[in-house]
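quick one before i forget lol
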Amino acid sequence: MVGMVATTSAWPELREDLAIYPGPRSYDGAPTWTIYDPTSHRYFRIGWLEFECLQRWYNANAEQIALAISQDTPLAVDAIDVEAFASFLNSHQLAKPCGPEASQHLAKQRLAYTPGFWRWLLHNYLFMRIPLLNPNPFLKRLAPKLGFLFTPQFLALVFLLASLDIYLLSQQWSGFSHAFMYVLTPEGLLTTGLMLSLSKVVHELGHALAASHFGCKVPAMGVALLMGMPVLWTDVSDAWRLPNRSQRLVIDAAGMLAELSLAALATLLWTLLPDGGLRSGFYVLASSAWLVTLGINLNPFMRFDGYYLLSDSLDIANLQDRAFALARWHLRTGLLNFDLPPPEQWPTQRRRLLIAYAYGVWLYRLVLFAGIAWAVYHFFFKALGLGLFGVEIGWFILRPIAKEISAWRQLASARAMPLRPRWPWLLVALVLALLVIPWQSHLLVPGLLRAEAETVLYSPQPAQIKQVWVTEGASVKAGQILMELTAPDLDFKINAARRRQAEIHELVASQSLDVALVRHNPMDLEALQSTLAELAGLEAERQKLTLRAPFTGLVRDLPEALSVAGWLAKNEVVGVVISPTPMVVAYAEEADLGRLERGATGQFYPDGGDLAAFPVRISRIDRIGSRQLALTELASTYGGGIAVREDAEHRLIPEQGVYRLTLSIENSPTALPIMVRGRLALSTRPESLVGRLLRSAAAVLVRESSW
């Protein structure tokens, strides 16, 4: 064991309340033991040398203990090894404090391990445990009655049940997959929350019962706040004292096995029950248990069940910390050629596995913390969201990188010989060059090829087709008659209005012959004016039944069933008039707007590969962002490249600020279709990835700060 020299002159005396248990065999077959500290509820794994030291601890002298071990065992040991173990016992409070020096040392350690409020908050706001009860007495009474759950027969029963579920689901897969829409309803969301809570209770009870079954204590169960969301947790750390690795693996997997057993039962009940609320509840229970167990709990990169399964299967306690230490050593020696001893000696294959695992965890955490930063930025109000975003990026991503670079500087300053470049530096230099050098001279944006102008023809009211003057694809001029419609109801109203007009005219003319009728003259004149206005409106409505071309163009999309004497409903589409000149409409993100300018050229690449790319030129750039997306073909909900969400009025709202671009087509060699979706590669000023990132961050800050 490697450690520091003992900090006190007096020989440390072991605490009487410590317990020691036989541990599992290490990877090389050497015996191990486990020290249990009941005060801090911590476990310490020691090897053969440390165990022999404890057996001779009464000698109270490092040299005498080392001499006795060398005489009685084949171990090669000296006083420095014994003093290192004594320092380990002192630093972890496994020895009694003796004298003022020991008390001062403990006080310094407590001060060092007691973080301030803000540091504590930074470490705990993502995950905070709150113990609620001590289930150990209850589990001791319950575990003997449920011993059958840990028999091979029960496991075989669950396997058979899962196999039956797979067969039944294959017969009803369409209904099972379409039942997911129920989850999206308010009632479904409530049911999902209740069923997830039930499955998590079963999950934690599985861990607790397994630990109690093998004689371990379960001192606490409670709630953990994961980013403010409550999740259950169970303290089964007492499993560390079990020497049998297979028993620890069963405890690690018991939660997932319990949850999967519940999912198998729920799936079977879903296939058997009739439609209703109970069947929907079992569907939610089955689907959520399968997905959460397999998608989250098996993840070995976070400290969930998958991590402890990997740790116990490799029989490496503190797997992540030891893998991180080994990966840092590998990085420093391989990249910077520092002459450093490895933190631990491992066989070659196991060392490579631990290094690869550490790099995998670092990459996963980079993506995870960046995702959490994005989530807290969007889910909290503006000021707090920006603050938490900065905390996530600064504390959990940039701070570890800065600490490692600082360690490199200290090692380099203590090095006698200057650092010499090695081949891994080439990879680092290449990555930095890709980030810093402005090599990006093209901008990719989603676009749509469409007509420069387009008008939809529709029937303004229920009408009958009188005459169709054009055919599909015909060229028309502005004002040309395309179709004539007639509305018998409208004709009847016009004829009735004309008859009323004639009657009022006769009545007004006869008033000059009879003095008694003169007093009605003002009312009759008012009725005449009203009738004339009504008639003018009806005539205008009839004029709309004559459909004309609004501009010179082509007629498209005439319905196949369109025929003379056929009837049309109100607002029924009867065709489209498009201009013969096509154009491209695209949308650029707010952060890219500064790189674009009118007159810039580019290439349009149609989707599908059936149409060759053709050159385009930017003719217009909107300086006001689009609050809603008018072109549904470019929306993500319809397979386009612009992320949108649909509001209560079914409008497509872009998730990010986007600006409309209008582009003209430059000398297309072939005839172009009416409409096709694609991507634009626009020529822009060269820019680096770092510059783009900084500009995007500045745009977000300006937008969200309302500057």
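fyi The radius of gyration is 40 Å.
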